[in-house]
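Researcher: Going back to the complex we discussed earlier. I've cleaned up the inputs and rechecked each line, so this should be the final set. Can you rerun the prediction on the complete assembly and write out the structure?
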Amino acid sequence: MTAQVSEALHYRGDDLALCTEPLEGYFALTGERPPFEAPHTALWRGYVGHWEILDDRLYLTGLSGCGKNGQDIGLPQLFPDCSSRVFAHWVNGTLRATRGKCLQYVHAGFASIYEQDVFFHFDDGILMSVEVIDNSAPANAAFD
Amino acid sequence: MVWLLAYFATGVAVLGGIFIDSRVGNSQKDGNFRNLMDQIRRSNRSWFEYIIEDVLLSLFTAIAVIAAWPIALIFAIYFYRTKHDNVPTIQDDMPKVFSVTREDLLHPQTVPQIEAKEVIYDPRGGVPYIPFGHLNKHWKTFLRASHPEDTLWSFESPWEQYGKKEQRYGYARVRENEVIDWFTKSIKPISSCISSS
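Model: Rerun complete. Updated structure for the full complex:
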């Protein structure tokens, strides 16, 4: 699979590339998926979500989705009750974001390696912890 | 000399038999998911892997079978019997479907009890102040299918697919001691990233 366009995550003034798709968890829970269409092979899921972590809570702040016949699918269509900022209370587990330069491009999904991986651990949409892995450091640095 | 020629000729015959059996087996597995994944893997190989796997390995195997055909024959018979004892069914290749069983049920609860404790609050108004927040519409749809004699039970159910382990939580509808259907309120991965491609 071609390398995929990442989701966008804003965290403490930084714009990160989110390599996890938190909306898919929502679709899995509801059993409904809007009829997104892939505009090209680098975006099979058919949408890009814009996320923000604010006061340790994960919010979906924007959605650019491609529907059938070129129609736009955005936040108002998906969440008519909260169309400007959606608290992602369905998100559990770890989200992986990347930061910095691309060290190694991999032509598949979100497999490319960047300078830093930032792992956000969530419980019901609440940020529990953050873990940063520095990929630019030598792999055996821990043993030096 | 004649005996040596006869030995190698038998080896060639054994090799031919194994080859034909393997081709017939592969043609029967064409729609098989695992076979499809293997085809994808093979199509992505480099020329180096192609030479190692398809040329050198095949050549080495052929020479080994001809040279030591009695051992190869014993292995071939063993694998033939094992293969026919464990023929994969269509169900083996189908994705599993999640279901809640009686063993997953925790406590019986009324709708008011559930709705009182499942309201989700966000100080920035990112979710309506209603039970299950953004999942409320689906909760209401679930409730509409209730019969008066039904009871709702909380459930916690483990689930694993494609190596991803998770725990699913929600409420199940029980009718005459049978789980009829369920509403999943959250999915918590036990390991690995969620929905990471």
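Model: Worth noting: The interface with chain A takes residues 120, 122-128, 133-135, 138, 184-189, 192-197 of chain B (CB under 8 Å).
Researcher: Good, that matches what I expected from the previous run.
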